[in-house]
C-alpha cells in the first residue's frame, strides 16, 4: 500500500485513528508512566530534584558490589549458556544426531518451568543435605548457595533462549557453502571455523547479549540460592519492600534498567541485520554433509548428558513431592499434597484464571499493533513499535516498583486488584504478539487486504475478516507463549500480589523461604503440569507445532 493511500485511509477512517490514539495511550500509561514514576522517585526523594540518592548508592560498597556481581554473573552465565545452546543447536540442526526430536523437546522444556524451580532442585541435590553431595558421595563441598549455585541454575534455565535463536540461524545457513569449502580441500574443522561459525556469529552475539540481560534481571533464582552473593535485582527488591527505602529501591531499579535497555537495543539491532542468512530460494537440505562418526558420537554424548541433567532436575522436584523430609526422613508421604491443596488450591485457580484472562488480550493487542505498524502509515508508527517492544528490555523488578509507585494512589488506585495483575501480564508480554504478528504479516501480500478495502470494507472489518484469519498461527502461538510467561512470572508481580489475588510462583517462593521444600516441590510440579496441559490442548485444537509456539519467544 502506498504512503498516499495509507494517509487517505487514516484521514477517512475515524475508527482507525481512534485505535491508534488508544494504543498510544495504553502504551504510555502502562509502560512509560510506571518507568517515569520510578525515575521521579529516585530523583525527588523529598519532593526536590536531587542526585543524592544515586550518590549514596555509589558511595556504599554494598550497592557497588551488587552492581559488580550482577555484571560478572551475567557475563559468566551468558558465555556458558550461549556455548551450550550453540552446541545443542549444532548437534540437532547440522549434525542431525539420532533422537533429535527428543533432544529438541528437552532443550526447550526449562522455558515452561517456574523461574526458580531449578534452584530448588539444585538445593535438594547439592545442598548441605543434598541427595548427591551428602548422602550418595558423602562430600563436604561447603554450600551451593552463592555464585556457583547461581551459575549452575541460571545456565540451565537460560540456555534454551540461546538454543532457540541459534537453531533457527543454523537452519538458515546453506550447507552448500560448507560443501564448497570441502571441495576446495578444506578439512571439516577448518570449514566449520571459516564458514559456519562466522555466518552464525551475529546470532551467537545476539544470544549472548539477551542471555546476559536476562541473567542480570533474574530475580527468582538469586533470592532462592544467591545466599550472600548480592545482586542488583534482589537488592532493589529488599530496599523497596524490606527496608522501606522507596527512593533507594527506585534508584537501584533505574541502575538495573539502564544497561538492560542498551544491551537489548544492541541485540535487536544485530538480529535485524540478518547477515547470517544464506538461503537462496532453493532447497539445500539435499546437500547435508555426511557426518564423521566421532563427531556424531561426541555431540550425541553431549546432548545425552545435558538432557539427563535436565531430567534429573525435574525428577528431583517430583521425588521431593513424595518424601517426608528431604535429607532427614526419606519415607513416602502424601502429606505435602494435602497441605499444598489446602494452602494453594485457591491460589492456583486464581493464577490460571488471571493468566487465561490476560492471554487473549495480550495476543489481540499484539496483533493490532503489528497490523498498524506493518500495514498502515502514520506519524509515530516506529515509536509505537518501540514502545510496544520496550517492556521486553525493562527488568521485572523495575516494572513491579513502577506499578506500585504509579498505581497506588490518585488518580489510579489499582494496587492489590486483579486488574493491575492482568495489566502487568498484558504489557509485559505484548512484545511476543507484536514480534509474531510482524513476522507473519511480512509474509502475506498486502494486496489481499487492499482488495477488501477497494470493495468498500473499512480497516476494522478487513482486520477482523481478512488479516486475523491469515495470521491465525501467529496469534495462537503468541497467546500460548504469553500464557506460559503469565503462569511463571515472578519478578514484577511479586510487588503487585495481595491476600486475595496471590500468584502461584509467589506462594512457591514463600514455601521455599520457610523451608517447606516438599510443599514447594508439589506446587512447582502442579504448576508445570497445568502449563503443559494447557499448551497441549491449545496445540491440539489449533494444530500448532512446537516450533511455532516456542519460536515466538526465541529472540527474547
Explain what this protein looks like in three dimensions.
- By secondary structure, the protein is mostly helical.
- It is about 75% helix and about 0% strand.
- The strands form two sheets. A two-stranded antiparallel ribbon has the order 1-2.
- Strand 3 and strand 4 form a beta hairpin.
Stretches where pLDDT falls below 50 for ≥5 residues? 1-11, 275-286, 552-556
- Class by SSE composition: mainly alpha
Approximately how much beta-strand content do the residues carry?
under 5%
What is the CATH H-level superfamily of the domain at 1-46 and 332-556? MetI-like
Give the % helix.
Answer: over 70%
Quaternary state, please?
A: single chain
Biggest sheet layout: 2 strands, antiparallel
The whole-angstrom Rg is: 24 Å
Tell me the total number of β-strands.
Answer: 4
**N-to-C series of helices and strands:** HHHHHHHHHHHHHHEEHHHEEHHHHHHH
Tell me the name of the CATH class of the domain at 1-46 and 332-556: Mainly Alpha
Topology readout:
Blueprint lengths: L2 H10 L1 H30 L8 H8 L1 H33 L6 H9 L8 H10 L4 H6 L10 H25 L3 H9 L4 H30 L2 H6 L6 H11 L3 H28 L19 H28 L2 E3 L3 E4 L2 H41 L5 H13 L2 H11 L1 E2 L2 E2 L4 H24 L5 H8 L4 H12 L1 H16 L16 H10 L3 H26 L3 H6 L5
Antiparallel strand pairs: 1-2, 3-4
Helix pairs in contact: 2-13, 2-16, 2-17, 4-5, 4-8, 4-10, 6-14, 8-10, 9-10, 10-13, 12-13, 13-17, 14-23, 15-16, 15-18, 15-21, 15-23, 16-18, 18-21, 19-20, 21-23, 22-23
Amino acid at each position: 500500500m502506498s504512503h498516499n493511500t495509507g494517509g487517505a485511509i487514516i484521514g477517512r477512517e475515524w475508527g482507525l485513528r481512534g485505535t491508534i490514539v488508544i494504543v498510544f495511550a495504553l502504551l504510555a500509561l502502562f509502560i512509560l508512566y510506571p518507568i517515569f514514576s520510578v525515575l521521579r522517585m529516585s530523583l525527588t526523594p523529598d519532593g526536590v530534584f536531587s542526585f543524592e540518592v544515586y550518590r549514596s548508592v555509589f558511595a556504599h560498597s554494598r550497592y557497588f558490589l551488587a552492581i559488580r556481581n550482577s555484571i560478572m554473573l551475567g557475563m559468566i552465565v551468558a558465555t556458558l549458556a550461549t556455548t551450550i545452546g550453540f552446541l545443542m543447536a549444532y548437534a540437532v540442526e547440522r549434525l542431525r544426531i539420532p533422537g533429535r526430536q527428543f533432544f529438541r523437546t528437552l532443550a526447550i522444556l526449562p522455558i515452561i518451568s517456574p523461574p526458580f524451580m531449578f534452584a530448588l532442585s539444585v538445593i535438594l541435590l547439592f545442598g548441605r543435605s543434598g541427595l548427591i553431595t551428602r548422602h550418595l558421595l558423602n562430600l563436604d563441598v561447603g554450600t551451593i548457595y552463592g555464585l556457583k549455585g547461581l551459575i549452575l541454575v541460571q545456565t540451565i534455565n537460560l540456555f534454551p533462549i540461546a538454543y532457540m535463536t541459534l537453531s533457527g540461524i543454523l537452519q538458515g545457513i546453506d550447507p552448500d557453502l560448507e560443501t564448497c569449502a570441502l571441495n576446495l580441500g578444506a578439512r571439516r574443522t577448518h570449514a566449520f571455523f571459516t564458514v559456519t561459525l562466522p555466518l552464525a556469529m551475529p546470532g551467537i552475539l545476539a544470544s549472548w547479549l539477551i542471555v546476559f540481560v536476562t541473567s542480570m534481571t533474574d530475580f527468582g533464582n538469586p533470592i532462592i540460592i544467591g545466599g550472600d552473593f548480592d545482586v542488583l535485582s534482589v537488592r532493589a527488591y529488599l530496599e523497596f519492600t524490606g527496608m522501606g527505602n522507596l527512593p533507594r529501591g527506585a534508584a537501584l531499579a533505574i541502575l538495573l534498567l539502564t544497561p538492560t535497555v542498551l544491551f537489548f537495543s544492541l541485540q535487536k539491532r544485530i538480529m535485524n541485520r540478518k547477515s547470517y542468512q544464506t538461503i537462496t530460494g532453493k532447497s539445500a537440505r539435499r546437500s547435508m554433509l555426511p557426518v564423521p562418526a566421532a563427531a556424531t558420537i561426541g555431540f550425541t554424548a553431549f546432548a545425552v548428558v545435558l538432557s539427563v541433567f535436565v531430567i534429573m532436575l525435574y525428577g528431583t522436584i517430583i521425588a521431593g513431592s513424595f518424601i517426608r523430609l528431604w535429607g532427614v526422613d526419606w519415607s513416602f508421604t502424601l502429606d505435602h499434597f494435602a497441605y499444598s491443596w489446602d494452602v494453594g488450591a485457591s491460589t492456583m485457580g486464581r493464577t490460571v484464571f488471571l493468566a487465561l484472562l490476560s492471554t487473549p488480550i495480550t495476543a489481540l493487542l499484539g496483533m493490532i499493533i503489528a497490523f498498524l505498524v506493518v500495514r498502515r502509515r502514520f506519524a509515530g508508527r516506529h515509536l509505537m513499535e518501540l514502545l510496544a517492544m520496550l517492556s521486553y528490555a525493562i527488568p521485572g523488578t523495575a516494572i513491579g516498583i513502577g506499578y506500585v509507585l504509579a498505581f497506588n494512589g490518585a488518580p489510579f488506585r489499582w494496587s492489590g486488584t486483579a486488574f493491575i495483575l492482568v495489566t502487568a501480564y498484558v504489557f509485559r508480554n505484548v512484545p511476543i504478539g507484536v514480534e509474531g504478528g510482524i513476522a507473519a504479516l511480512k509474509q502475506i501480500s498486502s494486496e489481499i487486504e487492499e482488495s477488501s478495502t477497494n470493495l468498500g470494507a473499512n480497516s476494522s472489518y478487513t482486520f477482523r475478516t481478512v488479516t486475523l484469519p491469515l495470521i491465525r498461527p501467529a496469534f495462537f502461538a503468541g497467546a500460548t507463549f504469553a500464557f506460559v510467561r503469565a503462569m511463571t512470572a515472578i519478578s514484577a508481580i511479586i510487588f503487585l500480589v495481595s491476600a486475595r489475588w496471590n500468584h502461584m510462583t509467589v506462594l512457591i517462593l514463600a514455601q521455599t523461604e520457610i523451608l517447606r521444600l516438599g510443599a514447594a516441590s508439589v506446587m512447582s510440579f502442579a504448576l508445570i503440569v497445568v502449563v503443559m496441559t494447557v499448551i497441549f490442548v491449545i496445540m491440539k485444537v489449533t494444530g500448532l507445532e512446537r516450533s511455532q509456539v516456542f519460536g515466538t519467544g526465541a529472540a527474547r
